[in-house]
Amino acid sequence: MNGRTLEKMQYFVGKVCSIVTSSMNRAFDEQVNREHFVIMVEELGADGIWGTHPYNDELVTFFAMSHVISVHEEFELDPNNPEHASMIKEYEDKSGNKLEGDIKSTSVPAPKSSSGLDIIDQKGTPLPETNSDEGGMTFVDIASLERLADHTKKSFTAKEILS
User: Domain 1-82+89-106 carries which CATH code?
Assistant: First the structure.
């Protein structure tokens, strides 16, 4: 694979993608195919593609570039989006099956106040509300940052083991 191709393929880093590989002597149903071959691309290089599963970032996957045939960007349908809801309904009407999302949200919602979301500190204590014209405050989801740090550590550990 030439350098320009690898450079262009960096587009897929950070995106949920289906990875099509050379055939193997195992048959998978549709759900297993999604579980094994749809990943959030973490890193892409001459050796291959590292990724995690969109619904479980503790599952790290590596596809050797010599077996990758193609990479396809995917997107999740949002049932709250009217256009996506129409697509979901059309599929359900044609197939007779009710769709359930593959990706489950694992974030913990922040406590709500009468005026919206409270801004909380690391100990979970609500901070005083501010007017956005007064400079405001930025909300940082500590739980998500901790999961991201844990995931990054696991990814590096897995790469070190394989090196």
Answer: 2.30.30
